[in-house]
Design brief:
The chain is α/β, with parallel strands linked by helices. The protein has helices at about 15-30, 95-105, 115-125, 150-175, 190-195, 210-225, 260-270, 295-310, 330-335, 345-355; strands at about 5-10, 35-40, 50-55, 80-85, 90-95, 110-115, 130-135, 175-180, 200-205, 230-235, 245-250, 255-260, 275-280, 315-320, 325-330. Helix 1 runs parallel beside helix 8 and helix 4 crosses helix 5. The longest helix has 22 residues, at about 150-175. The protein is elongated, with a radius of gyration of 22 Å. The structure holds 6-O-phosphono-beta-D-fructofuranose. 6-O-phosphono-beta-D-fructofuranose (F6P) binds near residues 140, 182, 257 and 258.
């Protein structure tokens, strides 16, 4: 009988609990495995009670719950510990401590659920002989090797509802309403929710924008009788030749945190486009609460498929949805090419065709 352990890393995303539930049920029902949960990312490996058994009753009722019953850890790489040596800070590789601990706990395989950071950790462990399988998670949808990550659908539904609500004030007060959405390096949320929510301008990290183009669009709409405009902006969007905007630059030991580009655009629009402007930053509301039906389905299929990979001994892989088929790709392959919005693809072309400005027109 195999002993497998589940861990959720990085920021939470709607659907994590659905993965945990499906993986636990599949492992017990179909493969007679013993299932364990690891608390707070991989840190739980070292905590008293940090690795605990998961049974049917532990996963009962968690399908519609947001967050993760295991807890997550979203700091950098746990294998790189900052220590002081001779008055200097150095980074020590402590991967072996984790590997020894996994052996000591007699765990045969790990199922790591997370985004880019967690999957890098999974790959590192795999290369050092640990039997690992990954499940791709992130609301940003920027993990390579799969068509879609769970969490994304919920995020765009929440963001779309926000656009619908912002339209009310935009139309009533003849204002420009800006909604800043998550998306560090990939603009999928801003693009898809922007299109679904009727945005007039969509600014994404993949397409550097010009402030003039944004203004032109607003003026064009006013000239055609539309006295309001809606702007969707990804937190990682930036003007061409300019920098991303950080709320936290990371120079004092904290992890860098994006945020503020919505206000930068808002200030410019109000000062230069003759339009009263308001900015909303949706933030973690995009990651909170119950997953959509699509994310529950996707997360369930991912969790179950990941256990089948473990049962077949197909380690070092990450589950993937390609078209309508669930399959898997090597972790190294999935990490080699993070997913980005295809700037010449169908979705961007459609956005342009229906008159949405991507901020790059002259
Ligand atoms: O990776 C998902 C994500 O939502 C990013 O879009 C965002 O920059 C980040 O997480 C925020 O993370 P935190 O919870 O650490 O603020």
């Amino acid at each position: 009988m195999k002993r497998i352990a589940l861990s959720t890393g990085g920021g939470d995303a709607p659907g994590l609990n659905a993965v945990i539930r499906a993986a636990t049920k599949t492992a017990i029902n179909d493969h007679g495995m013993e299932v364990f949960g690891i608390r707070s990312g991989l840190d739980g490996l070292f905590e008293p009670g940090g690795v605990f058994p998961l049974s049917h009753s532990d996963v009962r009722g968690i399908l519609p719950l947001g967050g993760t019953i295991l807890g997550a850890a979203s700091r950098g790489n746990p294998f790189k510990r900052v220590v002081e040596k001779d008055g200097e800070e150095i980074i020590e590789d402590v991967t072996q401590e984790y590997i020894d601990r996994i052996k000591l706990l007699d765990l045969d395989a790990l199922l790591l659920i997370g985004g880019d950071g967690t999957l890098h950790i999974a790959n590192e462990l795999h290369q050092r002989g640990v039997d690992v399988v990954g499940v791709p998670k992130t609301i940003d949808n920027d993990v390579g090797g799969t068509d879609v990550t769970f969490g994304f659908d919920t995020a765009i539904n929440i963001a779309t509802e926000a656009f619908d609500r912002l339209h009310t004030t935009a139309e009533s007060h003849h204002r420009v309403m800006i909604l800043e959405l998550m998306g560090r390096d990939a603009g999928f949320i801003a693009l898809h929710a922007g299109m679904a929510g009727g945005a007039d301008v969509i600014l994404i990290p993949e397409i550097p924008f010009s402030f003039e183009a944004v203004c032109n669009k607003i003026h064009q709409r006013i000239a055609r009788g539309s006295k309001f405009s809606i702007i969707s902006v990804a937190e990682g969007a930036h003007p061409s030749g300019g920098q991303k905007v950080y709320k936290h630059a990371g120079d004092d030991g904290y992890i860098t945190r994006l945020g503020g580009i919505g206000h930068v655009v808002g200030k410019f629009v109000e000062a230069n486009c003759g339009a009263e402007t308001r900015v909303t930053v949706l933030g973690h509301i995009q990651r909170g609460g119950t997953p959509t039906a699509f994310d529950r389905w996707l997360a369930t299929c991912y969790g179950s498929e990941a256990v089948r990979l473990i049962a077949r001994g197909r380690f070092g892989r990450v589950v993937s949805l390609q078209g309508r088929r669930f399959t898997s790709v090597k972790l190294s392959e999935c990490l080699a090419q993070p997913k980005r919005v295809d700037v010449t693809g169908d979705t961007v072309q459609t956005a342009r065709a229906i008159g949405i400005s991507l901020g790059d027109e002259s």
